[in-house]
Amino acid sequence: MVNKIWLGMLLIGFGFAAYKGDINLVTKAAFEGAETGVTVCFGLISVLVFWMGIMKLAEDSGLVAKISKLLGPVVRFLFPDVPKNDPAMGYILSNMSANLLGLGNAATPMGIRAMQELQRLNPDKTTASPAMCTLLALNTASITLIPTTLIAIRNTYHSANPAEIVGSTLLATAIATLAAVFADRWYRRRAPYPPVPPAGAANSPPPPTARSASAGWGEGT
Amino acid sequence: MIAFIPLYAFFRKIPVYESFVEGAKGGFSTAIGIIPHLVGMMVAISVFRASGAMDFLIGLAAPLVRWLHIPPEVLPLGILRPLTGTGSLAFTTDLIKTYGPDSMIGRIASTIQGSTDTTLYVLTVYFGAVGIRNGRYALKVGLFSDLVGFVAAIFVCLLLFG
Q: Which keywords appear in this protein's UniProt record, sorted alphabetically (chain A) (predicted)?
């Protein structure tokens, strides 16, 4: 998909420039674009290095764990079919906390771990369980408190107040997340799925790459 | 935040400096890692814009969105955002560079970029990691929340900064 869009943009740009009779424009624009790309990345280094250092402190000091504890009731409401003390819960919580803090890079590994634990509870290994869909919905909307990268870019271009978008981002992301949760609940009711077997009843967790043959509904109880 | 987190960590007897440096290392590789993506996308956007193709497309959609008080310049971002994180980041950067970070377009673009995520990437990575082939309604929910986030970002900005 991205491949086609990328090529499409280049070709359409080329076509328009040819139509205008100024092909050199393409070469010039291409190198300008490349330069901007590198300049922006270098501008990002300072802010990213600093914030990721701070966030590591938040993680090591147990601050992320604390936020996880606060989120507990919310997560139990969102994932009613995940057993209360299942390891999946822990990973879901750390994934959400990392997302909240804008730790995109830390959120992904935890999200994948959560998915693996949910897969262990999933009776049909090739089809997403409702809990998996909910986790995904939360991650695509991704509540964000501090959009670090954006503040960095605004800083690079001399914004008078680089952080002024924190409030608007928080509000917009909250609305998007609410929409995701409602849509998820709506689909969840419409598309029935066999109940998750109680914790411990499932056999040893399969490796993440395991692909059992599609066994259809009702397997695993 | 900047003062609180290190202090909190210090009182929890964490080796603050070492811990900071260890996390900070990741920041450098992240920034370097997105260079190829950003350069690739910036080249395509730059060519697309300089050739006049962008203005042509925006011109087509302009009457409708202007009627809704939406700056037409941010429209491509709504399509790009769920597809490619670095691509939309490049586009946002381009908008901020062209119109200024404190313009309405700059603020809206920043908010859109910050408030939704690359649905297709998240879907591929998360489901791919555990071998899920049938994602059921997950993509629909993801795209729906992207759309809501896009519209919400615009109206929140018009409300807060307008």
A: Membrane, Transmembrane, Transmembrane helix
- Across the range A190-211, mean pLDDT stands at 50
pTM, two decimals, is 0.72
Report the gap between the CA of B60 and the closest CA in chain A (Å). Answer: 15
Q: Residues of B with CB below 8 A from A2's CB?
A: 83-84, 87
Question: Considering its fold, how many domains does chain B have in total?
Answer: 1
Assign 3-class secondary structure to chain B: CCCHHHHHHHHCCCCHHHHHHHHHHHHHHHHHHCHHHHHHHHHHHHHHHHCCHHHHHHHHHHHHHHHCCCCHHHHHHHHHCCCCHHHHHHHHHHHHHHHCCCCHHHHHHHHHHHHCCCHHHHHHHHHHHHCCCECCCHHHHHHHHHHHHHHHHHHHHHHHHC
Q: What is the ipTM of this complex?
A: 0.75
Q: Is B129 on the interface with A (CB under 8 A)?
A: yes
Using CB atoms, pick whichever of A125, A135, A191 lies closest to residue B136.
A191
Chain A residues with CB under 8 Å of B152 CB are 171-172, 175-176
Q: Is B60 on the interface with A (CB under 8 A)?
A: no
- The answer as to whether B137 is a domain residue is yes
The residue range of the domain holding B83 is 35-161
